[in-house]
Write a structure and sequence with these properties.
This protein is mostly helical and 175 residues long. It has five helices and three strands. Helices cover 74% and strands 6% of the residues. It has a three-stranded parallel sheet with strand order 2-1-3. The longest helix has 55 residues.
Length: 175
């Protein structure tokens, strides 16, 4: 995916350079921004982080409670193991195994649910940002917008492109 985007970007830039060489040159304008900076500035992102932290705490508390219940039952089993008849011993072992299996399933389901909620909420935030970027880019007549995060674009000549980070932040706070 990144290679395709890079190839497309290089193609656009080479077309812009070749267009500038002709007599009827058309300059391609572009914008750039720090996507992470925009995201962190959004109130929705702060709410997302708070909600995810609370949800994680709830699941961790439940996992701890379940773990404590299991440990208590296991200790009771160990204390009475020597005195239990064979059938009671097998029944208690079976109960412990079922309890352990349920706890493992709960942990897996919790993790999956947390990941799904996080991905869904993050997609909503990204969609909002992408819409704002699109609006700003169209208003300013840009051919494309680059994300400068994670050193993806180590240099941009400010005479050829425009930083729209603040414009996107402003648009998102006005809505």
């Amino acid at each position: 995916m990144k290679k395709t985007v890079l190839f497309l970007l290089l193609t656009i830039v080479s077309l812009a350079v070749s267009a500038q060489d002709t007599k009827d040159s058309v300059a391609i304008k572009f914008g750039y921004l720090s996507y992470d900076s925009v995201m962190v500035a959004m109130p929705e992102y702060a709410e997302f982080k708070t909600n995810m932290a609370q949800l994680r705490e709830q699941y961790e508390a439940e996992q701890k409670r379940v773990e404590n219940d299991f440990n208590k039952k296991y200790e009771e089993f160990l204390d009475g193991q020597a005195t239990f008849p064979k059938t009671i011993l097998q029944k208690r072992q079976s109960e412990l195994q079922e309890m352990l299996d349920r706890n493992i399933d709960f942990k897996k389901q919790s993790l999956k649910m947390l990941n799904d909620v996080e991905a869904n909420l993050m997609n909503n935030i990204k969609t909002t940002i992408n819409t704002a970027v699109s609006i700003v880019a169209q208003e300013r007549g840009f051919a494309f917008v680059l994300n400068t995060d994670k050193e993806a674009v180590p240099f941009i000549n400010p005479a050829m492109g425009e930083d729209i980070t603040e414009a996107v932040k402003k648009l998102l706070t006005e809505k």
